[in-house]
Amino acid sequence: MDPYATLIQPFVEFGFMRRALVACLALSLGYGPVGVLLVLRRMSLLGDALSHAVLPGAAIGFTIAGLSLVVMSFGGFIAGLAVAVLSGLVARVTPQREDASFAAFYLISLALGVLIISIRGSNVDLMHVLFGTILAVDDTSLLLVVSIATLTLVVLAVIGRGLIVECFDPGFLRAVDGPGAILHFAFLVLVVMNLVAGFHALGTLMAVGLMMLPAAAARFWAGRITTIAATSSAIAFAAGYAGLLLSFHANLPSGPAIILVAGGVYIVSVVAGPCGSLRTRFLPRRHLEA
Amino acid sequence: MTAVFSLNDVTFGYDRHPAVHHLTGRFLAGSLTAVVGPNGSGKSTLLKGLIGLLSPLDGRLERNGVRQRDIAYLPQQAEIDRSFPISVVETVLLGHWRTIELFRPATRALWRQAEEALVAVGLDGFGRRPIASLSAGQFQRVLFARMLLQGCPVILLDEPFAAIDAKTTADLLAVVTRWHGERRTVIAVLHDLNQVRENFPDTLLISREPIAWGPTAEVLRAEHLFQAKQMAEAWDDRAEICRRSVG
């Protein structure tokens, strides 16, 4: 096996592979920190809920403008945001917890999405919304993905401290009259925005996988929040690269290939990572003096 | 003496049901007051009302020039995820939130103050450890260090010494005494009456309504304590509108 031919040549030879790789890199940069914050907030399943919530918006966009990336993305963004804001409001002003309100609104949204799609008749192109086709990323969608990644990193740089505090000790932020609610909603906007960026490349069902699996895996490799986020981005990009190659050589669909590689990294991390993995639990080294 | 909080027939509660009602009195600036009473007597609710996390159902509460950000509040159960990947000194540094807020840099001087606060609560050298590695008592010391940095003129503590050992309690009580010496207003919900008698000049005894409020020795008399025990804890779904309500 020629390493160059296996690992590099596909990207040199084919423009669609190059664009897919750049899309993966851009997605990974935003997904790392956002996914880690979701995990730390114990809202890992919220990403999943929001990714389903995007569906009716994308479907309405599709019925209006056909397979237009911009319109579908915009529709998805609005739908995801509506679910996030409504659930957040219910959780803040009533005693109901956020997981319940999110479940309620995303299920309504999902049912609405399925209804719209079935009324408009099944269309093969809509499979694209559900499962994405990273190998068909064109220049417009690449631009969208890269813009969202850039915006995400800028927003994180500006309000990162607030997001971490809101996540770590929300009661303290309330007590010092900090902008907890604003930060919380800003974070939800970031999550929805990034899922929309991912849905064209990976589909609404798969995008959240690239957000959560690396973030969940990274916790087993690092102990500080910044290094966990960086590790998560690195794992996401590595999974993207390896998944693309796997899909290219084995002729597999790219989205699931990428997510399954990330899943493999997660399982390896659970078993063998240096921080709190099964290995450290069941093969402990001798205890220290103090 | 100026009052930090003036309460005029104030009722705090949830969903129209009072947790503590018809409370009238003043917390004076620089006072050190223990709030005691049986479980469910409305002590925590009172603190939440004082800081403004809960609005009075009835009556009038005046915070005389005290803004919410002037109050440091230690809740009974902090909503803190103790496995969060953050270090001890970073947690303490949050006490400077009013200075740094979202955007301003945490300067070296602020970091040094955080380290000093750790020394003051007996956690010298713990700064770089992750909070996940601390015991419950050590973590309570961290939260006190954070309040030291907050430097607020008013400090509300909700059962700060529950499940804390004697040594830690003694160290943290010394911090409370130091605050009192600095003329800060401290209000603490406590259960250990001996601790209250030894360390707190003033006491408010409540049991869903005020029983006694004043110098500790007078408040913690046997008849008052007996009276506090007799109060009903009941939440009655069909309770009538309280006839003592004004208007």
Distance between the termini of chain A: 51 Å
CATH superfamily of the largest domain in chain B: P-loop containing nucleotide triphosphate hydrolases
The structure class of chain B reads alpha/beta
The averaged pLDDT of chain B comes out at: 89
Estimate the global geometry of chain B from the Cα principal axes.
globular
Dominant shape of chain A: globular
Order of helices and strands of chain B: EEEHEEHHHHEHEHEEHH
Give average pLDDT of chain A, whole number: 88
Report the uncertain regions of chain A: none
What is the topological layout?
The complex is a heterodimer of chains A (290) and B (247).
Chain A: H1 3-13, H2 15-40, H3 44-65, H4 69-93, H5 98-119, H6 124-131, H7 139-168, H8 170-175, H9 180-202, H10 204-218, H11 225-250, H12 254-272, H13 278-282
Chain B: E1 3-14, E2 17-28, E3 32-36, H1 43-51, E4 58-63, E5 71-74, H2 88-93, H3 97-100, H4 108-120, H5 136-150, E6 154-158, H6 166-181, E7 185-189, H7 193-199, E8 202-206, E9 210-215, H8 216-219, H9 222-230
Parallel strand pairs in B: 3-7, 3-8, 5-6, 6-7
Antiparallel strand pairs in B: 1-2, 1-4, 8-9
